[in-house]
Amino acid sequence: MGDPAIERLRSSVVSKLTDVPKRILIGRALRSDRLGETLLPKRIALPVFASDPLSSVAYAPGEVLLVLSIAGVTAYHFSPWIAVAVVVLMFTVVASYRQNVHAYPSGGGDYEVANTNLGPKAGLTVASALLVDYVLTVAVSISSGIENLGSAIPFVVEHKVACAIGVIVLLTLMNLRGVRESGTVFAIPTYVFVAGVFTMIAWGAFRGLVLGDEMRAPTADYVIKPEHQGLAGFALVFLLLRAFSSGCAALTGVEAISNGVPAFRKPKSKNAATTLAMMGLLAVTMFCGIITLAAATDVRMAENPARDLFHNGVPLGADYVQNPVISQVAQAVFGKGSILFIILAAATALVLFLAANTAYNGFPLLGSILAQDRYLPRQLHTRGDRLAFSNGIVLLAGAAGLLVWVYGADSTRLIQLYIVGVFVSFTLSQTGMVRHWNRHLRTEQDQAKRRHMIRSRAINAFGAFFTGLVLVVVLVTKFTHGAWVALLGMVIFYATMTAIRKHYDRVAEEIAAPDGPSDDSVRPSRVHSVVLISKIHRPTLRALAYAKLMRSDTLEALSVNVDPAETKALREEWERRGIDVPLKVLDSPYREITRPIIEYVKSLRKESPRDAVSVIIPEYVVGHWYEHLLHNQSALRLKGRLLFTPGIMVTSVPYQLQSSEAAKRRARRQQEWNAPGSVRRGPAQERPTRESSEPKA
């Protein structure tokens, strides 16, 4: 035996080496009582929870112009009115959610509002819609960011699926480090983007109104070939509604703040409401500014630019790359290649990546609440080492990565699936808030409070009507273009969560302790112990010794005859050693082991139904993962079958091989160094210390 001090040092070094990579990637584990240190001030909460609606101004104006281009450039003069409608809807939704965060500050957001006021089915529908929308937020934002970045770096476009998945992995690691740390990193590019857009709007207004400069977008001289020229009546109204619904992409992510109230510093509701107002004001200002500058600089966009955009009477062709509206406006205002243009272009690409962070904070929080309500696996309710909901973060990353791979990181295809889920949740949530106010108005007598509630109900009713109208338009105009996939995803989530809840309810009912006596609390008449034997070695002798200690009513050793020579040698060795436990050998003509044992223990139960049968299995404990492939396979199969046999108790008697000693020391050192899961195990002082766990000399 070596020096114990050297052994402890070696074990400590090995433990640290295995723990270092994880600590580098996500940081050291945090104690539960440090949860307050991870809460967010408003300046960090804004980029964390509002990066999606803030970044959507990079593509929402373009979506409006793309739809209007169907009727030709003459339809562009409707874009300011569509922008006004989007602004009205944005302020309505923001005003509604400011009430949500005060009335329901627990973090359930739309799910809690719908579940409380409209019933569990409506709540589950909202939850399904939000989960789908969060996954799509990650896929769309990152795919769009990759495409923006690819216009400057061709390698990214050539390998956009791999690059998109790489960004997902990077964002996942950053969020696993904790909400506060990821928010600090994400705040800088988000604020640079917002400052860049406001600078562009201010400088553009100054040049146009004060200096009288003529600013022209790079596409100003292009001509749009309309697909349907001279639209009027219902067709024109339908086109405007479709353009309005596309512009409503600017509202995606608004609900994330109501789901993330628990992550704010105190006073949580007040800070969340203030952040909502700041987000709404910034988003609508940037959206209207870009729409106005796009009209002033004569930006031209087309759904099929290669075919529908003409220059000097010639179609642009397949080689033409249509830049986003914000890029064209920035080029007209700042000048192509200028430092401000480059900064804004870089910030736009980066903030589109970071827009996915809204989902990384909303999805895990909602998943935790659903897990608490038994609609999702309980593991999603558990905080990880860094006090973030690690399992939810990993699940979101996996789902988004799969979607990116299936759709080839193509934002044009993915965006057709978008905004369906968010408007389902908007509509049901605000309908639920109307019922919330109706319920409170029945009992409220104070006239001032009643006036406030009536005003709030009017806002929510208007919001429910408006978002419901948008939802109908989105479903009608985008169903065949891919919206059906989002609906299918919602149905799958709904069915899965319903099945999980039924399972948990069934298990809870089945294992509930009865008030009176039951069969489970009645002591068995007798206990028959059976020790499974293959050879006589140390694990066998240990299992026999343990079985004798139990003082069962009957005790026997059981072996299966699959090789006559080995069985004969076993009998002879048994007799030679004089072991005072009867040895029973079962014949197995087909060389099976599991079935004869199962049939034998079932026969014992059948003979005496009130008796219990205890099956004792010797097992090796090894220290390396690859050694598990070489040992205990028969025991695992047998235990799997025995666990489904009523009245059979299965006991494993471990025998630690030499390699397992290193594993035991590693596990002990990991506990002392706050290993993964130490927060869930409790305070360090409740666990054995290094000195108390080591034997005294």
CATH class of the largest domain: Mainly Alpha
Total number of helices: 27
How many domains make up the coordinates?
2
Strand numbers in spatial order across the main sheet? 6-5-4-7-8
Distance between the termini: 14 Å
Q: In CATH, what is the homologous superfamily of the largest domain?
A: Amino acid/polyamine transporter I
Determine the strand fraction and express it as a percent band.
5-15%
Radius of gyration: 33 Å
CATH architecture of the largest domain: Up-down Bundle
Sheet with most strands: 5 strands, parallel
CATH topology of the largest domain: Amino acid/polyamine transporter I
Name the helicity range: 55-70%
SS content category? alpha/beta
Count of strand segments: 8
Mean pLDDT: 77
Tertiary shape: elongated
Low-confidence stretches: 1-20, 22-37, 673-697
Give a verbal description of the structure.
- This protein is α/β, with parallel strands linked by helices and 697 residues long.
- It has 2 domains: 36-505, Amino acid/polyamine transporter I, CATH 1.20.1740.10; 527-656, HUPs (Rossmann fold).
- Helix content is 64%, strand content 6%.
- The chain is built from 27 helices and 8 strands.
- Helix 4 crosses helix 10.
- The radius of gyration is 33 Å and the shape is elongated.
- Mean pLDDT is 77; it is low at 1-20, 22-37 and 673-697.
Short précis:
The chain has 697 residues and is of the alpha/beta class.
From the structure above, extract its key features:
697 residues; alpha/beta; Amino acid/polyamine transporter I; Rossmann fold; 2 domains; five-stranded parallel β-sheet; three-stranded antiparallel β-sheet; 27 helices; 8 strands; elongated; disordered N terminus; disordered C terminus
